[in-house]
Amino acid sequence: MKALTLSLALAAGLLLQAPASADTLLVDRVKAETQAMPARGQSMAQVEASFGAPERKHAAIAGPGDSKHNPPITRWDYAGFSVYFEHSHVIDAVAAKANPNEIGPKPVQ
Description:
Elements: H1 2-17, H2 26-33, H3 44-51, E1 56-57, E2 73-77, E3 81-86, E4 89-95
Signal peptide: 1-22
Protein name: Phosphodiesterase
Keywords: Signal
């Protein structure tokens, strides 16, 4: 028992001396960068005036039926984020991963 206690104390001491390291999570980076992205409700013209022309503009996609229940959604891609529009106003801006190995949130299942 004394040997087990000594081993645990030694292991705890070694762990306390180990250098701390942490990964930057996508969620944490996004929180820090949200001020540099378009705000919900801005028009396409306001976004383009503030952030310049996007690298790519995707064609609008609408669901089946009338546009009231399935409005057209357009996506503009910038270097660090994508902006989603419903009709001509921002509904969301999403940060791109900094690199393929960046850790993001677990997908909802």
